[in-house]
Amino acid sequence: MRTEDVLAAIATGLWRWDNASGTVTLDGEAARLLGLPAEPVTLPEVAVRSRFHPVDWNEINGIVNLAVAEGTLAEARLRIMDVDGRVMRTVRSRSKPVENVGADGRIDYELIGTIQEIAEPQPGTTAVHTAITGDWRRSREAFLLDAGRALAEARSTTEVLRVAASLSMPGFSPDGLAVFGMAGERLSIIGHHGHDVGDESPFADMRMDTDYPAAEVVRTGRAIYLPTPEDYKRRFPATWPLAQRFGRTSWAFLPLIVAGRTMGAWMAAFKHPVSFSPDERSVLTTVARMLAQALQRAGVADSERELTAGLQRSMMPQLGPEIPGMTIAARYVPTGGGLQVGGDWYDMIPLPSGRFALVIGDVQGHDVRAAGLMGQLRIAVRAYASEGHRPDAVLSRASRFLAGLCSSEERADSYEDEDHLSPRFATCLYVECDPETGLLEVARAGHPDPAVRMTDGTVLMRPTAGGLPLGIVADTGYPTTRFTLEPGETMMLCTDGLIETGGHDLDTGWARLRAILESGTHSAAHEGESLEKLADLLVSAVHGPSSHHTTGPLADRREDDIAVVLLCREGPGCGCGAPSTHAARPARRTMLTVAQAEPERIAGARQQIRELLHDWADEDQLDSAVLMVSEMVTNVLMHTDGDAVLVAEAVGELGERRLRVEVSDSSDELPHKRHPGEMASSGRGVLLMEMLADNWGVDPRGDGKSIWFELNEQSKPLE
Fold it and tell me: 572 and 580 in contact (C-beta within 8 Å)?
């Protein structure tokens, strides 16, 4: 009797599925089982595929791919459909995938095997569902969806391993897991679960040629299934004693493959026997693929975080050594995207004169190029400052350096895109500080002005003379502004990211910062907060979740890097948190220079007076002070050839303060009282002070004169 007759007698048919030609060859019994005439036939693949239930076809497709990858038999249960879409019968397929290499080098395979009809349990009988039907399939699909989602959300290698350890596979959950990696020619353990501390020691530094399942999986890229201890002992006798002590019954070792490269192995060990059916192998293989991809993503993320931390450590300086009488705090917060590096920086530079310099700047952009330019520019500024140059000379040289650096990049990288070649500029604020006197010399290149918090909590912007951002014009000058940081006062330097984060513009952003600084004063006075905590308060209040929910008038503005530096001159009531022990209220002072070429800064002078007297009791007196200041400064610019220097001071207790304002210039000509006509455009300055000021006068000086007025605060009467 022929083999075909024997197989037909037991309802078993033969088939050959040629993937290269897309044809299927059936014997008579196989054709009958598929609902075709019972005679040998060769059909196109699509004709045979239409006979399978769609769900089962997807199932067998995955099982065949798994068998090809592992070099095992492909076993599946298939439902055969008639032309009307009804299930005719259920068959079991067992086939061996055979690889064929074509003339063009393409690899295809043939399936050579059998199909056999099996009986389905009838309703009302005690027959149970097998592991690959109905409920098990749905449970497996739900498990894989949950596992895929959990692994996709894991952001670090530790999280991936935690998720892998918590996976509960349908019907066969492992009690021991291990993830192996490669370190050169040796096997390493990335993580494990279900083992005691120290259990991994024998496997942690194993040679790749060791007779151990994980090592063989990494070498060959093929999975190894060991259903029984006897299988393990027979195939790997050398390392069986290492596994025997854990008391496991079954093991699965699967390769972790990403983009065709084996990056490690995954072990799932079971205390209960597991036969590793095709469906169970399919689940394990799918999990291994998801685990490999998750580990690769987490590895890239870990590398990026390590690179980011390294860049920040190398680019951000340490604020030391300590300076007697001064306290400094600084913060840098990247924008949060990509490598989380950008163009903002700060620095503290000891100078040859015994003074020190504070520098804060912002290179245009939030990318790696901005970070690279920032690092080079910071080094250049430090070098120029260490040579002993004055603030204006440091910025002039830095501007020339950045312009030349961008020009050389453009010539060297002519193949790059247009954005890479575009010139970059940088804003910068350079402050030279004398720690003994508190004298500050400020040079500014397109950067936001500093702010000063006085001892009583009043916060004022300190307008300073400035020039163009660095790198726009190679040879440009930067004027210097001098003022004194009094004992107990705190100066804040920041980049525009601190001001504009959360959709604010410069005006609304400064108003928000002023409120934070003033509230920080009261908090420090009562809770003893340090300058470090004040820096944290500024960053968290601006960069925290609230800034993303409470947006400003420009809600579409991109988030920016943040750099902030706080300098406190220690004294009673200072911003470092030491409460004032003086009974008298400290004085408020401000100073401003209005140059002949900057008449628009008269508006800044008016604003300075309003901010200085923000809590003045009488609004009419405040308006009078602003009017007189505007008139005095305007007269200097109109009738002299020099600059106007404004100094304002308010002393005394609230409701009883005295305001004194002086405007100095270099002219010897004294103002005199005139009687302007109705259409005259000048001559009213002295008349205004006679009418509005409580006291006023003119003091001649050796190099000019100073005109001043005083106002005594008048509390509003109770109504």
Answer: yes
- Cα distance between residue 191 and residue 166, in whole Å: 13
The dihedral sign for the CA sequence 293, 232, 112, 93: negative
- pLDDT greater at residue 544 or residue 685: 685
Q: How far is residue 167 from each of residues 28, 246, 254, 477, 551, measured CA to CA in Å?
A: 46, 20, 16, 66, 41
Q: 247 exposed, middle or buried (CB, 10 Å; 0-12, 13-18, 19+)?
A: exposed
pLDDT band at residue 309 under the 50/70/90 scheme: low
**Least confident piece of the model among 46-55, 314-323, 635-644:** 314-323
- What whole-number distance in Å separates Cα of residue 478 and Cα of residue 428? 11
Handedness of CA 496, 501, 504, 510 (dihedral sign): negative
Collapsed DSSP state (helix, strand, coil) of residue 677 = coil
Whether the ω angle into residue 321 lies within 30 degrees of 0, i.e. cis, is yes
Q: Summarize pLDDT for 101-126 with one digit per residue, the tens.
A: 766 667 777 888 888 887 654 444 33
CA distances from 417 to 260, 343, 413, 420, 422 (A): 32, 20, 9, 5, 9
Q: How many CA atoms lie within 13 A of 291 on its CB side?
A: 31
pLDDT at 231: 92
How many residues does the structure list for the chain?
719
Cβ neighbour number for residue 111 with a 10 Å cutoff: 20
Model pTM score: 0.60
Query: How far are the Cα atoms of 52, 438, 483 from residue 432, in angstroms, in the given order?
Result: 83, 10, 11
Q: Which among 110, 65, 116 has a CA at the least distance from the CA of 93?
A: 116
Measured at the alpha carbon of residue 453, what is the angle toward residues 440 and 623, in degrees to the nearest 5? 105
Tens of pLDDT, residues 436-455: 999 999 999 999 999 999 88
Instruction: Say how many C-beta atoms besides its own lie within 10 A of residue 677's C-beta.
Output: 7
Confidence of residue 297 (pLDDT cuts 50, 70, 90): confident
DSSP state of 655: T
Mapping DSSP to helix (H, G, I), strand (E, B) and coil, where does residue 69 land? Answer: helix
CB 231 within 8 A of CB 197: no
Rounded to a whole number of angstroms, the distance between the first and last alpha carbons of the chain is 124
Query: Alpha-carbon distance 695 to 681, whole Å?
Result: 25
pLDDT reported for residue 444: 94
Amino acid at 421: L
Q: Across the strands, what pairs with 107?
A: 101
Q: Which of 36, 77, 74, 72 is nearest to 57 (CA)?
A: 77
CA dist., res. 55 & res. 58, Å (int):
5
